[in-house]
Specification:
With 209 residues, the protein is an alpha+beta fold. It is 54% helix and 22% strand. It has two domains: 63 residues; 109 residues, 2-Layer Sandwich (Gyrase A, domain 2), CATH 3.30.1360.100. Strand 3 and strand 4 form a beta hairpin. The C terminus is likely disordered.
């Protein structure tokens, strides 16, 4: 049996302890290095993002300034004139595609015997829809109502109403009708019809059946 004073005897596993300390120290150094590398990378990314945010902010401010400059430079009166010119051009296009022959044929087929057509006035409303104003003379209100129902039944007219009715000396009734008219879909009207459509109102001969 080995006997002796352990306090004065060298520890025989000293290398193992030193190795463990070296490994622990190396791990700590490596961990610290990784942390430093990550911190540096994150700092660089943060700086890049800050620069990008600053750049985008400057671009946005420049765009707002440019928009404000453009808005201040707009002339409301000029815009209204341009809008009016565009509406007029659209109206002219509508009239070029307007067929008087087709309209009169449609009116003749729906006109009752005791109703006369006196005047036709085409126009467009603020929404760009085609509106026809018809002046007719009828013997009775019932004849006028029959004519209005006939126009609606064709499918080409909608919203037909009587704007005014006036009793004439001969006992007949002069009425002004107004309604939306669906233009036929076609490329262009013949030249003679296009020139006629450019004049409004249009006086027509009395149409009877």
């Amino acid at each position: 049996m080995l006997t002796g004073n352990l306090a004065t005897r060298p520890f025989y596993n000293e290398r193992l302890v030193r190795g463990a300390l070296v490994v622990a120290l190396a791990a700590a150094v490596l961990w610290t290095a990784l942390n430093v590398t990550t911190l540096v990378s994150l700092s660089q990314q943060s700086a890049m993002l800050s620069d990008r945010i600053r750049s985008e902010g400057l671009r946005a401010a420049g765009a707002r300034t440019e928009a404000d400059t453009v808005r201040r430079g707009l002339n409301v009166a000029d815009l209204k004139r341009v809008s009016g010119a565009a509406a007029e051009a659209n109206a002219l296009i509508e009239r070029r595609t307007f067929s008087w022959t087709g309209l009169f044929n449609l009116l003749e087929t729906t006109l009752p015997p005791d109703v006369r057509l006196v005047e036709v006035q085409p126009q467009t409303d603020q929404g760009g829809r085609f509106v026809l104003s018809l002046t007719v003379v009828s013997r009775r209100i019932d004849d006028l109502d029959e004519f209005m129902r006939g126009l609606e039944a064709t499918g080409a007219f909608s919203g037909v109403v009587s704007r005014s009715d006036e009793a004439l000396e001969d006992g007949t009734i002069a009425s002004t009708l107004q309604g939306y008219y669906a233009l036929p879909a076609r490329a262009a009207a013949p030249a003679s019809e296009a020139s006629n459509a450019s004049a409004a109102p249009v006086r027509t001969p009395e149409v009877t059946r």
